[in-house]
Amino acid sequence: MNIPSWLNDITLEQLPQPYEAIARAIGVPNTLKLASMYQGTGFYFPKLDGVLSDMRNKRIREEFTGSNHKELARKYELTERWIYEIITQNVDENQISFFT
Question: In the chain, which stretches have pLDDT less than 50?
Answer without folding.
Answer: 97-100
